[in-house]
Write a structure and sequence with these properties.
Keywords: Membrane, Transmembrane, Transmembrane helix. The structure is a single chain. The protein has about 110 residues and is α+β, with helices and mostly antiparallel strands. The chain has two domains: about 50 residues; about 50 residues. About 40% of the residues lie in helices and about 25% in strands.
C-alpha cells in the first residue's frame, strides 16, 4: 500500500477547514480530500412543515373524493409517509467544498 504525500500548498489549504470530504475537481483534475467550505439549508424547517401540510391536504382531499365515489381510499399511513418523504427531500442541505489545489468552490448534491 503506497501513501502519497500531498504538496505543502494543498496541506495548508486543507488545514483551514475542520471538516473534509472526498471529491474530484472538474476544473483542475485534483482528486482527494476537500474542505467543507459552507453548508446551506436548501429549504428551512418551516417551509418543510408547510410543504408537508400542503401534500397531506391534497392527498386527504383526493382520498375524500375517492371515498365519495365509492372507490378505495388512500391509507392514512401512505399519506403520512409520502408527506414526510417530500418534506425531507425538500429540506436537505447543500454542501459546498473548496478545492485545495485551485480554490474553486464545488457544490455537492
Amino acid at each position: 500500500m503506497s501513501h502519497q504525500i500531498l504538496p505543502e500548498h494543498i496541506r495548508a489549504s486543507l488545514a483551514q477547514y475542520s471538516e473534509h470530504q472526498e471529491c474530484t475537481c472538474l476544473s483542475c483534475g485534483y482528486s482527494g480530500l476537500m474542505g467543507v467550505h459552507r453548508k446551506e439549508d436548501k429549504v428551512s424547517n418551516k417551509k418543510a412543515i408547510i410543504i408537508f401540510c400542503v401534500v397531506m391536504g391534497i392527498l386527504s382531499l383526493y382520498s375524500l373524493q375517492q371515498q365519495m365515489k365509492g372507490q378505495p381510499i388512500i391509507s392514512f399511513w401512505f399519506m403520512l409517509i409520502v408527506g414526510c418523504g417530500i418534506g425531507a427531500y425538500w429540506s436537505r442541505k447543500q454542501i459546498y467544498l473548496a478545492c485545495p489545489n485551485c480554490n474553486t468552490e464545488l457544490k455537492v448534491k
